[in-house]
Amino acid sequence: MIQSMTGYAAGTAGSARGTLALELRSVNARFLDVQMRVAEELRALEPMLRERISERIARGKVDCRLFLAEGGAPATELNEAALAQLKTLAGKAKKAFPKAQDLRVADVLRWPGVVAAAAGDERELRAPADKLCRRVLDELTAARGREGAKLAAAVGERVAAMRKIVAAVVPLLPQSVAAYHEKLKERLREALGSADDDRVRAEVAVFAAKVDVDEELTRLRAHLGEVERVLEQGGAAGKRLDFLAQELNREANTLASKAASQAVSDGALELKLLVEQMREQVQNIE
Question: Can you list the positions of beta strands (E) in 39-173?
Fold first, then answer.
């Protein structure tokens, strides 16, 4: 199945410490690039999230956002080191200002760093976070798959159109050579009063060799067949399809440079336009 690199999915899950929320967004990129936006208390889960994402996604820039909405009042505890430091500072201040009032409990609790959130057990979150990540990845993969099917259909339409152009160009080549033959004979008659058949045949042979695009048409058909095979095979096909688009464009340019008639030149131009449209779609495929 062809996958797009663009997608979005989100989900939530309950845990012993509150509600976990996960968002995954993916866009185009040359390689897999995972950007993590994880709350500080969830940093220990980051390696697991990266591993799960890399198992399911081969290419694209993925933004992963995970946060925790604590359930109820958060557990807290006193920071013994901060308390000791505050006590020392209060003693020094008391010596400097003997008549100053003593610290109240409320003042102590408001002092920065004295009251700290109790450290939660990361193991309480690992299992629900893992399950949530797998579920959201399923949704993201499904979204990328739906978009990928549309991209594959668009590329397939361009391939079919290019095949028609190639088929239309094939009979134009003998016609161009025949037209050049008659034109050359007419010019010789006008210049010399007669046409030298040997000379005409030699000139026509040179012309036919210069405008021969049979090899280019063969390669075009081969590349188009390979594009169809890759689309049918599915998987991470974006880089392969991008390479094939470059090769198709190369052959279309050669066809245009050897064009022996306006009809062939027009066909080559249409091919180049279709290849460019195909490349725009391929840029979004994983």
Answer: 60-70, 76-78, 115-117
